[in-house]
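Spend some time on the protein that follows and explain the fold to me:
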Amino acid sequence: MAGSTVRRVIESQGEAWGKVLSSQMSWDLSGRVLCVGSGTSYYLALVVASLGQKLGLDVTAVPTQDVILDSADTLKPYDSVVIISRSGETSEALWSADIARQHQKRTLGVTCNDQSPLPSRVDEAWVFPYAHDHTVVMVKSFSSMLMAFERAFAAYTGNAAGQQALQELGRAADGFMALSDETMRRLTSPPPRRVYILGAGVRYGVALEGSLKCLEMSNENASAYGPLEFRHGPWGSVTADDLVVLLGQAAFAEHERQVLVDLSHRTKRLLTIARADWFDTASPGERLVLPAVDDLWAGPLSIVPLQWLGYYWALSQGLDPDAPKNLTQVVDLSYGKH
């Protein structure tokens, strides 16, 4: 059956999160930390950096290409480098690890492949083999590695509320997953012309990852923007056939709700994913309600509906989410040595 593997991986995320929360990994977050990754792993790095900054840590994210193309200037300000790679085999990840060590930076490798070369190329490694998707598209590897970073950040900063929030996300996983499944099945029938995903702060990287899942699985046009930034240009292309998904946060609700009201005059295909206190009686469109935890920590759950969106959009086009066109699990740029 088309998409059976991706479906199974999406549905198994709660189990992987439970194992992450019982793991013992840690990392010295003192000094200036640079997180790098490629594709989905870069979007994960963006979420990690935004969360770290909110918690008072000095964390920045750049794509691995910056380390490779301009290593001296990119690495100079930082004390340590975190290299994120699901497979631990991607060329850019391995090159970045080698370059960072050549520049005498402390290195942490984060991967889901316990057979990968990455752990041998870094000072320390987090390895989550139970979170490996064994699919082309990254699904539970993204959410599980994000959960791991959140757990480490909460522990390092002594944030008890964050630690409790992660436990609550784990308890809510199965129910929210099922509700998201049904919602996205409905919203992709008929299939949208385009999808726009809006998110700010700790949700911006999630929005980017959600749009990538749609692009990878459906081969259709999906884009991610900040909610207010969307009114500057991209807004003009919205039609009644487009679906807009807003990743709402309570602290931004006043501004985000107005953007949604404005969008309701262009399309009725609107979905907001947010806590219950984000919504008011005038909020247009459909809603998926997140558990009542601080928005900082809900990233692993907020990506789930976007994974279902890419999945059902692909099926609606007669495509197989297990076999996206022109993609491979590992990107190997074997033309050079670094």
Summary: The CA atoms of residues 250 and 277 lie 7 Å apart. Strands lie at 33-37, 59-63, 80-84, 106-111, 124-127, 195-198, 222-225, 243-247, 270-275, 286-290.
